[in-house]
Amino acid sequence: MLIALVAACSSSPMDAPPPTIVPAQAAHSPPVTGEPAGVVRPLAGHAQAAVFDPATTSLAVLSPGVGGQSMVTVVPSSGAERPVPLPGPATSMTGDNDGRVYASTRGGYFRVDLRAGTASRVDIEGQPGTDFTAIARRADGKLVLGSADGAVYTLSSDSGVGASLKIFARVDALVTQGNTAVVLDRGQTSVTTISAIGDDAEHALRAGEGATTMAADSAGRVLVADTRGDELLVFGIDPLILRQRYPVRDAPYGLAGSSGLAWVSQTATNTVIGYDLATGIPTEKVRYRTVQQPNSLAFDEASGTLYVVSGTGAGVQVIAGAEFG
After folding, report:
1. Which of 102, 125, 151, 187 is 20 to 30 A off residue 80, Cα-Cα?
2. Termini Cα distance of the chain
3. Would you say residue 16 has pLDDT above 80?
4. Is pLDDT at 52 greater than 80 in this prediction?
5. Which residues have C-beta within 8 Å of that of residue 256, sequence separation ≥ 6?
6. DSSP-assigned letter for residue 281
7. Closest C-alpha among 61, 85, 64 to residue 73
8. Which residues contact 191 (CB under 8 A, 6 or more apart)?
9. Model-wide pTM > 0.85
């Protein structure tokens, strides 16, 4: 009788949280010992994320602001930077390549108009207490958000949830290729593709020993930095497959994809490297000294400019014609 009671009260293994490891982190970068390449523009705050917007030819940088609020700093290709205070704290950022960026927050997201320099909050229906940690935008314009408790929400409108899926330990980063969303879970060091409907995981793969960041490129690939394992991982998504893996020493972290190269920063040495992925193995083409703590990268395809954004307030490094050395 006791055995039957214990068996009836025991929870199913499927209900237990997924096993995790301690998430990897960027290295604490040493002081800069050489002159960074290009031009360094000042930037207040410690950057969390950076997105280049081709419609306004400007870089948007997310960083903590004053009083617990966050700020998006608009860095134009010429002229002074413009701060856009957000109505609260933000955790992640994505753009639409048409003059707007979106930043995730608890219960919803902020919509930022880079031209007007304004920000507004959008509350997601039925999710007032959800701690959103990641955000991305699909090709069809739908936003996808991830949460601290491991769920992915695909929106059907500005504020309505069309589909959700909760199978992760935590959603640390999201990118999209077309209408396929890709989830990075640092605790499980895994990448997972989400169906276009948004309610099903199509494929999942382990991503090295301690994956930390992820970026999509214009060739349909997804780049992942395995910071603990000192590798660059290159995935195809249809289906999800690991196509290339290559050793990148010194705590790789910042990522950006371009039509020509994959950019990876080495946070232990204040360096950024451009790799050609056209052959079966990544080939180093260029290498630059950077500002301290090069955690965030962005690339302007039209001008060939690489942006390296410091995570310690050391500014935005602008490297024009970066792919040509």
Report:
1. 102
2. 75
3. no
4. yes
5. 215, 262, 263, 297, 298, 299, 306
6. S
7. 61
8. 182, 183, 184, 185, 204, 205, 207, 211, 214, 222, 224, 235, 240
9. yes
